[in-house]
Request: fold
Amino acid sequence: MAKFDVPKEQWAQVVEKSGGPVVYKKIPVQQPGPDEVLINVKYSGVCHTDLHAMMGDWPLDTKLPLVGGHEGAGVVVAKGELVKDIELGDYAGIKWLNGSCLACSFCMQADEPLCPHALLSGYTVDGSFQQYAIAKAAHVARIPKEMDLEAVAPVLCAGITVYKGLKESGLRPGQYVAIVGAGGGLGSMAVQYAKAMGLHAIGIDGGEEKGKSVKELGATAYVDFMSSKDLVQDVKNATPDGLGPHAVLLLAVSEKPFQQATEYVRSRGSVVCIGLPAGAYLKAPVFDTVIRMISIKGSYVGNRQDTQEALDFFGRGLVKVPFKTVGLSELQNVYDLMKEGKIVGRYVVDTSR
Ligand code: NAD
Ligand code: ZN
Ligand code: ZN
Reply:
């Protein structure tokens, strides 16, 4: 078994007060508990959720001070005595779901994201914006050795979440799905999972650069919400019979599209809410929802099985998020770009700089 010299101190990005900014500083390295592993995080994707956490956007308190991050790909360097199925030196991933009780009625049915005792990486426990992060061994993503840790990092939240959302939509191969926020981190992955699952993806986002990227990733059509004069009609027109897509994946970080989706979704279609804009509400006309038999639902990350399936798509070369890598020290700049909606695809931070 490999042996690792784990330092006492490490670099981390710490949220010291709600609203930010993040502070790049040295903090102690923690020891894993009996059922935990310590992962030397090499790369971590930056999810919009990390920004929501820093800003205190949601009706759920974060721990403070907080180390954010939940798309951390790295190497297991220490483990507790109860951990039998992971060896030191294995590749593993820190996901949003850091741990769960494994005994409640949700965990029993592999709905562990719904566990009332769930631990959330970069929210209720420290996450992957540090060089050494802890997670429950049962929940870390098992990353095969041949995978590139830098490229796979965004799969650990964005990939899993959109793959699960597509499964929850009930879509079948050959059908159309509208992906709202298609140029962002989740959206870029959603377009590719959709294509790999035999679906036609209609990407919706703002601006030419995102449009170009969304089309390159395999979307059948792109609707620009910033320049479209009639978004609802444009989305419907992107389906061959003009009746609209069979499902909508809402990944945007603004409320408006959550109000529009039921207008263009096809009758019998489903609207799957995944994005979490601060303080937003859903609104849909009852009459239309009833007589057109529209389903509206939420979808929240994925379970351990979804994780391994989402990674398998990556392993087969079917999904590849466009990413840019910067040093962990530059995380605040990434948040600044994210606030302005200027990020195409995903930013990944390299924890060694
Ligand atoms: P991102 O910032 O990378 O992407 C959001 C995209 O939405 C951007 O490209 C932006 O231009 C686009 N957008 C904004 N307004 C729009 C509009 N009116 N119409 C169409 N597109 C619009 O963010 P991300 O990391 O992809 O995360 C997206 C959201 O999903 C966040 O709220 C995040 O917290 C949430 N999230 C949810 C889950 C879950 O399990 N449900 C998991 C991960 C992330
Ligand atoms: Zn995330
Ligand atoms: Zn549980």
Summary: The pocket of zinc ion (ligand 2) is lined by residues 47, 49, 70, 96, 157 (CB under 6 Å). The mean pLDDT is 97. The radius of gyration is 20 Å.
